[in-house]
Amino acid sequence: MTEDHLIDIENMYMYFPVTSGIFQKKTTGVRAVDGVTFHIERGETLGLVGESGCGKSTTGRCILRLYPGIKGKVSFEGVDLATLSRDKMRRARRDMQIIFQDPIASLDPRMTVGEIIGEPLRAHRAAFGSEYADQIAELLSMVELEPSMADRYPHEFSGGQRQRVGIARALALRPKFIVCDEPVSALDVSIQAQIVDMFEKLREELGLTYLFIAHDLSVVRNISDRVAVMYLGKIVEITKSDELYINPLHPYTEALLSAVPIPDPKIDRKRQRILLQGDVPSPINPPRGCRFNPRCQRSAAVCREVEPELRQTSRDSGHWVACHDA
Question: The pTM is what?
């Protein structure tokens, strides 16, 4: 842990139990997050990318200690969150918030927008009376909505406006760190750009730190300082954003980048696309050795026997990769 690190994750595991029988006896576990280690620096945006089901969202929620049974060390400002009592963890959550993917499902349709945004203020007793109303108005303005909209209900808003409400709710307690769980994937492309611009503006104005989870690498490139690539519960590559797009080292990263559309049709026609064979293996029973080896074109005997460690490359001290061939 250094002073520049806001979040430090060391060997984090999250297995969801699989039960069977009348008595629901545990038979095995889904290895959603399987030994993840990384850090997030103060004021930066770390992008976390990968296919659906690879453990991205679970990783974000594990950092916030939203699941029981998390193993490993999760430090926030040098404090291991697992050591905190229930009351201290509640107070710590004022500094850590989350923005969900689906703004329809994450907003209570029976509450007005003002009540939704003000719920964290009420729960933590952070504002009362006229100050409470003033803060709601200020939060609506911060996400470029009119304060007069506070009395409306979520169904009266568009998808982009509903997501802005979710962002305002996350900002209510003035957190230091926000998990953005695919916050633009359910929105139109034109709206996505507006929301991403807002995230960058808020980060500069409020000194925020983000974990930005997404499966769209073009979105992640525009907002992230560094990018971590996740596959089947493991981080397989992590480096600076520009470095990842210019010099990907893991074959899975190469395959993901080959699927990103390029605006210039001449360049797009010339580049080689990498088509992955088969489906993502089951996280209940992952492959032996490297988890990507059944779908990898560069797979060798060692890949099927020995799991590669996430290691720094000799060419760039900030570039980490888990591949025998990199």
Answer: 0.91
Structure token pair of residue 298? 């560069």
326 C-beta neighbours (distance < 10 Å), count: 18
Distance CA 213, CA 216 (A): 9
The verdict on residue 72 lying in a domain is no
Q: What count of other Cβ atoms lies within 10 Å of the Cβ of residue 60?
A: 22
Q: How many folded domains does the chain comprise?
A: 1
Mean pLDDT in each 10-residue stretch from start to end of the chain (326 residues)?
A: 84 90 77 94 95 92 93 94 91 94 89 96 90 95 95 93 95 96 87 92 96 89 94 95 92 88 58 73 91 91 94 82 91
Cβ atoms within 10 Å of 306's Cβ, excluding its own: 12
Is residue 324 assigned to a domain? yes
E-strand spans in 21-118? 25-41, 45-49, 71-76, 79-80, 96-99
Grouping H, G, I as helix, E, B as strand and the rest as coil, residue 255 is helix
Q: How far is the C-alpha of 83 from the C-alpha of 152, rounded, in Å?
A: 41
User: d(Cα 113, Cα 186) in Å, to the nearest integer?
Assistant: 20
pLDDT in tens, 193-249: 899 999 999 999 999 999 999 988 888 988 999 999 999 999 999 999 999 998 999
pLDDT of residue 264: 53
CA 54 to CA 141: how far, in whole Å? 36
Determine contact, residues 41/5, Cβ cutoff 8 Å.
yes
HSE value, Cβ hemisphere, 13 Å, CA-based, for 175 = 27
Cα dihedral value 106, 181, 172, 126, nearest 10: 80
- One-letter amino acid at 227 equals V
Residues 6 or more apart whose Cβ sits within 8 Å of residue 275: 255
Inside any domain, residue 240: no
